[in-house]
Amino acid sequence: MLTFVGLGLYDERSITVEGREALQTADQIFAEFYTSKLVGTDLQRLEYYHDASFEILDRAGVEQDPEPVLEAAESEDVAFVTAGDTMISTTHVDLRLRAHERGIRTRIVHGTTAQTAASSLTGLQNYRFGKETTLPFPDAHGGGDVPDSVVDTIEDNRDRNLHTLVYLDIKVDDPHWDGDEEFMRGDQAASLLADEFGSYLGVVVARAGSANPVVAADRIDHLADEDFGRPLHLLIVPGNLHDMERDALVELGDAPDDVV
């Protein structure tokens, strides 16, 4: 049995009750934290809280050589865990399909995701979000500061009057990166987007899932000059706002009246 468990957004307590029970009954637990990371905790606290050992896999160990996970799941109850939800914005459906090809039963225990948190914390209506995009660090894709695909996604969504959720790059277990782990912040993202969208409304969400998340709404070129504290951060570029969305961003994100 292979159970995919989402750990939620922030720390060791963000997991669901069902997810925690799945970890307690698992014979082995494999984890990856290169897709996203629980910045409110560390491996030692995770293992202490769940009274379990986690075997951390790198990208190659999940995507190219998952044999240890699959072999263990053929005879034992195995949990595979990530931050957020294991099937959102990841390639882990490939691992699930490989398990099915070998006759291994699978199930998914979902976790809270950045997608839902972005809507919940800002008051922007979830059904008005269009295609999402990821803004990479400038040196991560071999092109200019902002890939054309990011610009096109934001513009296409705005043409359809939809909001754009922009995931911000992280450098964890990156084969093209030799330095320490690094997380793009909201002000960096706003600065990168300012040339194209500086006069547009932007919304930064910081530390979703923590006890004190931050929501800040302003012109994108103004957000570029702010400090939103510790990661993880998200950036939203809204389309036209409904009245309630406008009220929410003023009340919850301190949006200036002349911007919304």
From TrEMBL:
<protein>
    <recommendedName>
        <fullName>Diphthine synthase</fullName>
        <ecNumber>2.1.1.98</ecNumber>
    </recommendedName>
</protein>
<dbReference type="InterPro" id="IPR000878">
    <property type="entry name" value="4pyrrol_Mease"/>
</dbReference>
<feature type="domain" description="Tetrapyrrole methylase">
    <location>
        <begin position="1"/>
        <end position="221"/>
    </location>
</feature>
<dbReference type="Pfam" id="PF00590">
    <property type="entry name" value="TP_methylase"/>
</dbReference>
<keyword id="KW-0949">S-adenosyl-L-methionine</keyword>
<feature type="binding site">
    <location>
        <position position="85"/>
    </location>
    <ligand>
        <name>S-adenosyl-L-methionine</name>
    </ligand>
</feature>
<dbReference type="InterPro" id="IPR014777">
    <property type="entry name" value="4pyrrole_Mease_sub1"/>
</dbReference>
<comment type="similarity">
    <text>Belongs to the diphthine synthase family.</text>
</comment>
<keyword id="KW-0489">Methyltransferase</keyword>
<feature type="binding site">
    <location>
        <begin position="113"/>
        <end position="114"/>
    </location>
    <ligand>
        <name>S-adenosyl-L-methionine</name>
    </ligand>
</feature>
<dbReference type="GO" id="GO:0004164">
    <property type="term" value="F:diphthine synthase activity"/>
</dbReference>
<comment type="function">
    <text>S-adenosyl-L-methionine-dependent methyltransferase that catalyzes the trimethylation of the amino group of the modified target histidine residue in translation elongation factor 2 (EF-2), to form an intermediate called diphthine. The three successive methylation reactions represent the second step of diphthamide biosynthesis.</text>
</comment>
<comment type="pathway">
    <text>Protein modification; peptidyl-diphthamide biosynthesis.</text>
</comment>
<dbReference type="GO" id="GO:0032259">
    <property type="term" value="P:methylation"/>
</dbReference>
<dbReference type="GO" id="GO:0017183">
    <property type="term" value="P:protein histidyl modification to diphthamide"/>
</dbReference>
<feature type="binding site">
    <location>
        <position position="208"/>
    </location>
    <ligand>
        <name>S-adenosyl-L-methionine</name>
    </ligand>
</feature>
<feature type="binding site">
    <location>
        <position position="168"/>
    </location>
    <ligand>
        <name>S-adenosyl-L-methionine</name>
    </ligand>
</feature>
<comment type="subunit">
    <text>Homodimer.</text>
</comment>
<keyword id="KW-0808">Transferase</keyword>
<dbReference type="InterPro" id="IPR004551">
    <property type="entry name" value="Dphthn_synthase"/>
</dbReference>
<dbReference type="InterPro" id="IPR014776">
    <property type="entry name" value="4pyrrole_Mease_sub2"/>
</dbReference>
<dbReference type="InterPro" id="IPR035996">
    <property type="entry name" value="4pyrrol_Methylase_sf"/>
</dbReference>
<feature type="binding site">
    <location>
        <position position="9"/>
    </location>
    <ligand>
        <name>S-adenosyl-L-methionine</name>
    </ligand>
</feature>
<feature type="binding site">
    <location>
        <position position="233"/>
    </location>
    <ligand>
        <name>S-adenosyl-L-methionine</name>
    </ligand>
</feature>
<feature type="binding site">
    <location>
        <position position="88"/>
    </location>
    <ligand>
        <name>S-adenosyl-L-methionine</name>
    </ligand>
</feature>
